[in-house]
Amino acid sequence: MEASAFREYVTAAIRYWEPLRIVYNIALAAVVGIYYAISLPAARHALTADSILVLFILAVLANVAYCAAYLVDLFAQMSNFREVWMSARWVLFIVGLTFAAVITRFFVIGFFVTR
């Protein structure tokens, strides 16, 4: 494979996935916010310096997990199914976002609801 073709695939992946990272982070923040609001006033006591640092670490790990989409995207773009993939990769985003939201929900329940 030529370096210019690979560069094109990487550029296409960045252009597609990075704007969606904002949507991803807003959606996960909404899950946290909703469960925080549901759990008030007890949730206020759960917010300590340590718990905020743990939430920060989890947010970073969620963004690292988001990068897995790049591997799938680049692999699919380099295949003979590139045209089909380019019009259907939104499915990967929806599945990944749903999966991340469910995992976030379980963590947040542990943080706010059981304390």
Overall domain count: 1
Structural Rg: 18 Å
Largest sheet: none
Strand elements, count: 0
Q: Structural class of the secondary structure composition?
A: mainly alpha
Shape: elongated
The CA-CA distance between the termini, in Å, is 54 Å
Helix content: over 70%
Secondary-structure element string: HHHHHH
Sequence stretches where pLDDT stays below 50 over 5 or more residues:
none
Provide structural commentary.
The model has no long low-confidence stretch (mean pLDDT 93). Helix 1 (3-38) runs antiparallel to helix 4 (68-77). It is built from six helices and no strands. It has one domain (3-113). The chain has helices at 3-38, 42-46, 49-66, 68-77, 82-88, 90-113. It is mainly alpha-helical.
Write the layout of secondary structure elements.
Blueprint: H1 3-38, H2 42-46, H3 49-66, H4 68-77, H5 82-88, H6 90-113
Helix pairs in contact: 1-4, 1-6
Structure summarized in a few sentences:
With 115 residues, this protein is mostly helical. The chain contains six helices and no strands.
